[in-house]
UniProtKB/TrEMBL annotation:
One of its GO terms (molecular function) is dioxygenase activity. Keywords: Dioxygenase, Oxidoreductase. It comes from Advenella alkanexedens. This is Aromatic ring-hydroxylating dioxygenase subunit alpha. The keyword Oxidoreductase applies. The keyword tRNA processing does not apply. It comes from the Bacteria. Residues 97-268 form the Vanillate O-demethylase oxygenase-like C-terminal catalytic domain.
């Protein structure tokens, strides 16, 4: 199938820096195409199309190895990865039986916190989503002013706290979350979601983080975030349809879905078709 340039000409993650072993060849899929990647004997990252044997554009940035099947633009900026007081780590990549766009939409949805992440990111009866703002800036989507009552917003903090959220959608399959750091309330932790669309209805989620927690072990921080992802899997793997509907009359939305609706509208305006559910 022909893939629109707004999707083809993007950088996509295939691994985080803690995963590949030098000298080993890895096989995966990207936008329906089989590819190989790995680190050569000099620890230099490479990727090739498995059918064409054509070398692909590659990049190592933000604790992530990136590949493109097209002509990618300059990588978006994330200055927090260069701040020396942050801990950089990543969860184990997670396979999802859904469009990468579905994964992205779930990431932007705070309304599900008390129902899916009870005891950590939310709890009953605190289910109300306060109004927030969604804006388009510099070809990206920003969600500001969101806040939620959370009993355990981070591994090293137990105790109820209102956590503020700022989302930045950098590309159709990549987004950043800035959330209040309980240990340093004046600053924000950063959680990234970089989605690898293997096929239109199957994806792999890569989640590097730049945290301000200097007390917990890397293993404990990773395990906490991995548990959050695991709770989302039951929802994502059972969504119908697996692709993301962009037409507004397919599902019923509320004011709490403002970020999702804006994301879908932004995708439509960008001309994204790959991974979307189309009317027959």
């Amino acid at each position: 199938m022909k893939i629109e340039s707004v999707v083809l000409d993007q950088w996509y993650p295939v691994a985080t820096e803690n995963m590949p072993v030098a000298g080993k060849v890895y096989h995966t899929r990207l936008l329906g195409q089989p590819i190989e990647y790995g680190l050569d004997d000099n620890a230099t990252f490479y990727a090739i199309g498995r059918d064409t044997r054509r070398p692909l554009p590659v990049l190592r940035q933000y604790y992530t190895y990136w590949v493109s099947l097209g002509t990618p633009p300059a990588m978006f900026e994330i200055p927090e990865f260069h701040e020396t007081d942050r801990r950089v780590l990543a969860t184990v990549p997670v396979c999802v039986r859904a469009s990468g766009l579905r994964v992205m939409e779930n990431f932007l949805d705070i309304a599900h916190f008390p129902f899916v992440h009870e005891g950590t990111l939310g709890e009953m009866p605190y289910t109300a989503v306060k109004p927030y703002h969604v804006e388009i800036e510099n070809n990206g989507l920003y969600v500001r002013g969101a806040a939620f009552h959370q009993p355990m917003a981070a591994f090293s903090h137990e105790g109820h706290m209102t956590i503020s959220y700022v989302y930045r959608v950098c590309s159709p399959f990549s987004a950043l979350l800035y959330k209040t750091c309980p240990l340093q309330p004046a600053k924000k932790d950063l959680v990234c979601i970089f989605v690898q669309p293997c096929d239109e209805d199957r994806s792999i989620v890569h989640m590097p983080m730049a945290c301000l927690d200097d007390s917990a072990s890397t293993q404990a921080l990773r395990r906490f975030q991995q548990g959050i992802i695991g709770q989302d899997l039951a929802i994502l793997n059972n969504q119908v349809p697996r692709k993301l509907p962009l037409f507004p009359d397919f599902e019923i939305s509320t004011a709490a879905d403002a970020a999702s609706l804006a994301y879908r509208q932004w995708l439509s305006e960008q001309g994204v078709v790959y991974g979307t559910f189309q009317k027959s």
